[in-house]
Specification:
about 500 residues; disordered C terminus; five-stranded parallel beta sheet; Arc Repressor Mutant, subunit A; Alpha-Beta Plaits; 19 helices; Rossmann fold; globular
């Protein structure tokens, strides 16, 4: 993210975004209207080239030329980012490293010539780097058709190996959709010495360690379209990913290593306790799905504190009904999440792979036969998912923009659900941007499209002001003590 000519007012708004304030809070602080704040935030995103408020906050704290008050309380761990002195130095981190090569096809080289082939490779590197960044990676400057992505620094996540494998899988999928290029990838996890100053400045030489060398060797050994994974990363992601063994291989300068090829980054088959109870909630959701099948759009909310089974209940419902609906998944991220995809971006990715303006337009043309609506629908999807900024939509008032976006998304989801209903599952909706909540409300208002939006949220989300109605289903989870006792007894019997 680079400084891109923010006005003084826009910089003030960016600071308030980093503090975690809502648009309404910012409007009260600056004595301006909500609509004006929303316009400022749109302009900031556009100038910085980012999709989310979290990315705006990250820029404000780590890059933005703003005066940070000593008493300022930032959102989540942005406090820690702001407190880090300019000279960060080096430290040891456990990270997951991804090395990739972009290889132009022989046909492309012969047909396009060297200059145009270089343009194709450069564009591929740009898009593939964006895929890794969207999963939370820091990407080192690429050269000669290669790029290096590191997951776990400067911000560490518990699922960094899975993030790296998702990025690798998405990169291979992207290459399959672009026959003029092939991609081969190596991934490994391990301890490295991270140069935090390099990450904050040029991105060159940002880490040193043996796992980086191993990932590079795996990349060299991988066939086009293949992801080779080292033993540590494979072990770390064994509960959620699927691999096929490639046996022991002698790698130059490293020695013999057990290698595996990635089959699926996420199988959804991680070991878990058997699901017990919640019969009433599951029956309500099944009833809501049947209503959606009759082209009645529904917004169903599971409300409960953390750890009381909201997500598990939803997953159980989806598992038992996955053949009866198109299931699109997304998860809202807290303000501390760096480089996270927006939920609408995740929803599109479930349907068409890595969303780009081209793939969105092609999918809309495939689903919607009325040519008069395809352009507007594609623009609404791309703008809503942060793929591009549509200037026409940006020029509308917030109310008019919301109407245009909801119309486009309803048209897309209605066409997608022509053969069976669409279930959109959104976890952690309490983290959602208010604009997303309003859009979901509009999408599920009224009949006409077979859509069930199922979302889980914590109790504080009740204050979001969701409009009540027949198309709204809200269930408050409570600890199921009797069912918990039954589960405990069944587990005890299984271990005797």
């Amino acid at each position: 993210m680079q400084v891109s000519g923010l006005t003084k007012r826009e910089r003030e708004v960016a600071v308030f975004v980093a503090e975690g304030l809502t648009n309404r809070d910012i409007a009260d602080r600056l004595v301006i209207s909500d609509r004006t704040v929303e316009t400022h935030v749109e302009h900031i995103r556009n100038k910085l080239g980012v999709r989310s408020r979290a990315q705006v906050a990250t820029w404000t704290v780590t890059v933005g030329e703003v005066d940070m008050r000593k008493d300022m309380v930032l959102a989540g761990p942005f406090n820690a980012l702001a407190a880090v002195p300019a000279a960060r130095g080096s430290e040891h981190r456990v990270v997951t490293c991804l090395f990739a090569d972009v290889l132009p096809s022989a046909d492309a080289v012969a047909r396009l010539g060297p200059e145009r082939t270089k343009t194709v490779v450069d564009r591929a590197l740009q898009e593939l780097s964006a895929i890794a960044t969207a999963e939370g990676a820091v990407v080192e400057k690429s050269a000669g058709g290669a790029y290096f992505a590191m997951f776990g620094a400067p911000v560490t996540h518990a699922d960094d190996p899975t993030r790296a494998l998702r990025a690798a899988e998405s990169a291979i999928r992207w290459a399959n959709d672009h026959p003029e290029t092939d991609v081969r990838i190596g991934v490994e996890t391990g301890e490295v010495l991270v140069d935090l100053d390099a990450i904050a400045s040029t991105g060159d030489g940002m880490a040193f360690g043996s796992c980086i060398s191993l990932a590079g060797r795996l990349r060299n050994d991988a066939a086009p379209g293949e992801v080779l994974v080292g033993p540590v990363c494979r072990e770390a992601a064994s509960a959620t990913a699927e691999f096929v063994s490639r046996g022991q291989r002698e790698l130059e300068g490293i020695g013999s290593k057990s290698i595996a090829a990635l089959v699926r980054a996420e199988t959804g088959l991680a070991a878990r306790l058997p699901f017990v109870g919640r019969r009433r909630e599951l029956e309500q959701l099944r009833s809501a799905l049947e209503r959606a099948r009759e082209r009645e759009s529904i917004l169903a909310l599971l409300i409960a504190p953390a750890g009381q089974g909201k997500t598990r209940t939803a997953e159980e419902f989806l598992t038992t009904n996955q053949d009866k609906a198109h299931v699109l998944r997304a998860r809202c991220r807290p303000g501390a999440e760096l480089g996270a995809q927006t939920p609408l971006h995740q929803i599109l990715a479930n349907d068409l792979g890595q969303p780009t303006a081209k793939t969105i337009a092609a999918r809309v043309a495939e689903l919607i036969t009325d040519a008069a609506h395809t352009a507007d629908t594609a623009a609404a999807l791309a703008h809503g998912a942060g793929v591009l900024i549509d200037q026409r939509l940006l020029s509308l008032s917030p109310a008019e923009r919301l109407e245009a976006l909801s119309t486009g998304w309803r048209r897309y989801l209605g066409a997608l659900g022509k053969d069976r209903p669409v279930v959109i599952w959104i976890d952690d909706l309490h983290w959602a941007d208010p604009q997303l909540v309003r859009l979901l409300e509009r999408i599920t208002s009224g009949s006409g499209i077979p859509v069930l939006v199922l979302a889980a949220a914590r109790p504080e989300f009740s204050e979001a002001g969701i409009r009540p109605g027949r198309d709204r289903l809200q269930h408050r989870h409570r600890p199921a003590r009797r069912e918990g006792c039954h589960l405990a007894r069944s587990q005890c019997r299984s271990h005797r």
